[in-house]
Amino acid sequence: MAALTEESLIKIRRHLHQIPELALKEIQTSAYLEKVIAGFDQTHLQVKKIADLPTAIMVRIAGSAPKRTLGYRTDIDALPVTEATGLPFASKHPGVMHACGHDIHMTVALGVLSYFAAHQPTDNMIFFFQPAEESENGGKLAYELGVFKDQWRPDEFYGLHDNPDLPAGAIGCRMGTLFAGTTEVNIDLEGKGGHAAYPQDANDMVVAAAALIEQVQTIISRSIDPIEGGVITLGKMEAGTIRNVIAGHAHIEGTIRGLTQVMIQHIDQRLKDVGEGIARSFNAKVTVGLNQGGYLPVENNLALTKRFIAYMKHNPDVNFVETEPAMTGEDFGYLLSKIPGTMFWLGVEDDSQLHSATLNPKEASIEAGVQAITGFMTARMAE
């Protein structure tokens, strides 16, 4: 069977767009992907399912004279967003939408897979259709289940994310970090409640929380290299029950974002230090909970990314754009911390941003992405 045509790819994308599903619930999506993959030439293909991660799909293509195994990953889940595009192929699942463009991601991956199914690659290839990128750490879950072992372990891993700020079909990348890492922050302060008329008999955690929030602002401004950057956002605070009762407990939630894992670990430690200082100064108990899960920074491998960028820059059919790092998170960073590789952008040219209810990627980006990736993979195998 020949590789998928642009017309077929657009039909596939539109079908996927209509059946978005949340993390670890991608049942219809996974079944449809399996159906499409089953239509490819199976001569050199091997499809693998994972019992403990049932919506994930792995496909291996045996190379004709392999020197390495090249991996390609796409995410398959959607977001809890009510679509407002008005498209004739809009989501059929109320309150769920491919608002991050994972329908584009999957379609490009299928296009690349179909090409190499029809044209046996020189090197072995692994395609990983990953559930649960938006939440639940799907990449980390898969790795910890041991799915990337023996013949199923790539030597190099590649993946893309769509970018509405880039022209349709453009490829964007950079040396170093592409996406920031993220950490969830949960802080609890325990003091002593009491009557508003007798503050001397209580230990007010609203005051302690206010001091902590103010002190946290100095972590970025005075503990982090301003050229490297970092972000702490404390977006939620709960304390007290009524106006005339001193709050004995306060709870704060937020996020940390940093461009390298070293930076995130440094911010984590400074946040713990501030918490301990507040605890001592207010004679209170402070618990700082940090949960990074699988959302490590997407730190591109220097050697592989240099090669990737050189190919894209010198390919006259590719519109290459060198991009700045994004402070949003992507769980491919976890896999790239275990397996060297490169993540890059595919331009989809839209006025709406990712996670928006009106995101409407230009479909011309799909074929352009397939061509750029198959071209790069073919060139890499020739080395």
UniProtKB/TrEMBL annotation:
One of its GO terms (biological process) is diaminopimelate biosynthetic process. The keyword Transport does not apply. Catalyzes the conversion of N-acetyl-diaminopimelate to diaminopimelate and acetate. InterPro entries: AcetylDAP_deacetylase (IPR023905), Amidohydrolase (IPR017439), Bact_exopeptidase_dim_dom (IPR036264), Peptidase_M20 (IPR002933), Peptidase_M20_dimer (IPR011650). Its cofactor is Mn(2+). Mn(2+) binds at residues 100, 102, 134, 161, 355. The active site is at 75, 134 (proton acceptor). NCBIfam families: amidohydrolases (TIGR01891). Belongs to the peptidase M20A family. N-acetyldiaminopimelate deacetylase subfamily. CDD domains: M20_Acy1_YkuR-like. It is an enzyme of class 3 (hydrolase). This is N-acetyldiaminopimelate deacetylase. Keywords: Amino-acid biosynthesis, Diaminopimelate biosynthesis, Hydrolase, Lysine biosynthesis, Manganese, Metal-binding. Residues 181-273 form the Peptidase M20 dimerisation domain. It comes from Secundilactobacillus silagei JCM 19001. The keyword Ubl conjugation does not apply. The Mn(2+) ion enhances activity.
